[in-house]
C-alpha cells in the first residue's frame, strides 16, 4: 500500500465499503426471518453499538495516531495481555470474516449454477483472493474506494427500486404494502425471543470498522478529518441499512424471505427489469469478494505487526519484493480452507455456523476496544494535553452501556440453536487464545520472539 495520505473522501468510502458486504446482503435474510418486522429495532440497537465502538476508536486515533491502531492502544493501556489478546482475537475474527464472506460468495454464485456443490466455489474464491494478495496491491486505498462506490450505488439502487415498487410503479400486488409490518403475526411475530435471536445477525453487517481505524492513521490531518469521516460513515450506514430493510419488508413479506439467497434479489424481481436479478447478484458478489479482500489485507497486516512485535514469531514479519508479508498471508489463509471443508460437510448451514462464531470473536474484540478506551483516555491526557485543551472528553458511561449491550448480543445467540453452536465455537477459540497467552508468557516466548 502507498505511504501517501488518504483524503477524507477516500477514508469515508473505504469505511463504508469495508463494512457493507455479505454480512448485510445475506445475513439480513436470517435476521428478518428470525424476528419479523421488529428487526428494524435490532438494526437501530446495532447502529448505536457500532457508533460507540467507532467513537472510541476514532477518539484514540485522533489523540494519538499510530500504526497498529487499537492493538497498540490495548498494549499501552492494558499491558501485554491487552496487546496480545487484541491482536490475536482480531486476527482470528478476521480469518473467520473471510471464511464467512467466501461462503456467502459461493452462495451468491449458486444463484446461477445451483447444481454445482458449494465447496467448489468456496475453493475457487479462496485461491483467487490469495493470489491477488500475493501479487500485492500498491493502490489498495484507491481500489477499495472505487469498489466501495459500487457497493453504495448498488444499495441505493436497491432501496430506490424498493420504494418505487411500494408506490406501485412496477405494478400492483396484494402482498406489497405497509400491511406487511403488522400482518403475518404482527410487528413482533416471534416475540422477545425473535428480537433477541436476530441481534447477532443485525450487528454483524456493522462489523469492519477496525479496517477503517487501521487506515485512519494514514489520513490527512487525522485530528480534523477522522471525526468527520466517523460522523458520515455512521450516519450513512444507519440510514441506508434501516431504510433498505424497511423497504424490503414492505415489498417482501417477512415470512417468505429465505435464508439461502439474498432477500434483495427477491425484491428486485418485482421490477420486471430484464436480467436485473443477475446484475445485482453480480454486484452483491463483488461486494462480498472485496470485503473478503479487505479482510485479508487487514489480518495479514495485524499478523505482520504481531511478528514485528513480541507476540508472534519474527518470520511472520518477512516481506516479499512486492512488500507482501508472505508468511503472514499464508497463515491467514488457513481459515479459508476451513470454510471450504465446512462447505463440503455442512452445505446448508455452514454460513450461519461460521457467521455466528465470527460475530462472537469479533464483538469480543469490540469489548476489548471499549475497555481500552476507558483505561486509555486518562493516559492520553498526559500524552497529548494540547488536544484536551480544546476537546472535552465525555464520561465513560456510554462505553460501559455499550459493553453490556454487546454481552447481551453474544448471549442472545442462546435463543437460536444454530447460533448457539457458533457461540460455543467462538468461546472455545477465545479460550484457546487465552491459553496461548498464558503458556507463551509462562515459558517466556515473548522474549524469544
Automatic annotation (TrEMBL):
One of its GO terms (biological process) is transmembrane transport. It comes from Aceticella autotrophica. It is found in: Membrane. Gene3D superfamilies: Amino acid/polyamine transporter I (1.20.1740.10). InterPro entries: AA-permease/SLC12A_dom. The chain crosses the membrane at residues 12-32, 38-57, 77-99, 111-136, 148-171, 191-211, 232-257, 279-304, 324-347, 353-374, 395-414, 420-439. This is Amino acid permease. It is a multi-pass membrane protein. Residues 11-421 form the Amino acid permease/ SLC12A domain. Its main location: membrane.
Amino acid at each position: 500500500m502507498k505511504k501517501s495520505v488518504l483524503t477524507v473522501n477516500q477514508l469515508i468510502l473505504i469505511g463504508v465499503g469495508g463494512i457493507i458486504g455479505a454480512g448485510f446482503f445475506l445475513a439480513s435474510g436470517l435476521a428478518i426471518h428470525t424476528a419479523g418486522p421488529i428487526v428494524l429495532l435490532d438494526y437501530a440497537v446495532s447502529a448505536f453499538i457500532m457508533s460507540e465502538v467507532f467513537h472510541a476508536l476514532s477518539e484514540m486515533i485522533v489523540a494519538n495516531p499510530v500504526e497498529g491502531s487499537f492493538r497498540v492502544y490495548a498494549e499501552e493501556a492494558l499491558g501485554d495481555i491487552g496487546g496480545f489478546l487484541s491482536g490475536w482475537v482480531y486476527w482470528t475474527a478476521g480469518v473467520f470474516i473471510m471464511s464467512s464472506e467466501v461462503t456467502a460468495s459461493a452462495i451468491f454464485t449458486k444463484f446461477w449454477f445451483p447444481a454445482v456443490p458449494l465447496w467448489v466455489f468456496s475453493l475457487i474464491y479462496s485461491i483467487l483472493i490469495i493470489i491477488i494478495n500475493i501479487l500485492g496491491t500498491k493502490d489498495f486505498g484507491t481500489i477499495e474506494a472505487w469498489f466501495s462506490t459500487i457497493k453504495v450505488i448498488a444499495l441505493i439502487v436497491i432501496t430506490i427500486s424498493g420504494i418505487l415498487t411500494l408506490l406501485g410503479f412496477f405494478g400492483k400486488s396484494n402482498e406489497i404494502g405497509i400491511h406487511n409490518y403488522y400482518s403475518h403475526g404482527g410487528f413482533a411475530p416471534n416475540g422477545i425471543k425473535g428480537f433477541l435471536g436476530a441481534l447477532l445477525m443485525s450487528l454483524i453487517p456493522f462489523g469492519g470498522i477496525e479496517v477503517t481505524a487501521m487506515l485512519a492513521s494514514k489520513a490527512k490531518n487525522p485530528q480534523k478529518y477522522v471525526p468527520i469521516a466517523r460522523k458520515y460513515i455512521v450516519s450513512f450506514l444507519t440510514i441506508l441499512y434501516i431504510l433498505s430493510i424497511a423497504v424490503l419488508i414492505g415489498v417482501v413479506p417477512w415470512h417468505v424471505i429465505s435464508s439461502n439467497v439474498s432477500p434483495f434479489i427477491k425484491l428486485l424481481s418485482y421490477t420486471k427489469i430484464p436480467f436485473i436479478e443477475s446484475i445485482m447478484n453480480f454486484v452483491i458478489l463483488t461486494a462480498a469478494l472485496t470485503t473478503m479482500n479487505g479482510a485479508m489485507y487487514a489480518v495479514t497486516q495485524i499478523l505482520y505487526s504481531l511478528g514485528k512485535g513480541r507476540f508472534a514469531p519474527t518470520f511472520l514479519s518477512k516481506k516479499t519484493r512486492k512488500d507482501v508479508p508472505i508468511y503472514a498471508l499464508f497463515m491467514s489463509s488457513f481459515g479459508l480452507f476451513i470454510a471450504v471443508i465446512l462447505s463440503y460437510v455442512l452445505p446448508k448451514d455452514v454460513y450461519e455456523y461460521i457467521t455466528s462464531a465470527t460475530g462472537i470473536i469479533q464483538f469480543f474484540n469490540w469489548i476489548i476496544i471499549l475497555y481500552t478506551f476507558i483505561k486509555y483516555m486518562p493516559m492520553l491526557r498526559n500524552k497529548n494535553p494540547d488536544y484536551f485543551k480544546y476537546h472535552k472528553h465525555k464520561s465513560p458511561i456510554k462505553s460501559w452501556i455499550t459493553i453490556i449491550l454487546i454481552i447481551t448480543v453474544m448471549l442472545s445467540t442462546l435463543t437460536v440453536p444454530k447460533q448457539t453452536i457458533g457461540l460455543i465455537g467462538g468461546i472455545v477459540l477465545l479460550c484457546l487464545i487465552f491459553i496461548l497467552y498464558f503458556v507463551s508468557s509462562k515459558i517466556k516466548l515473548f522474549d524469544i520472539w
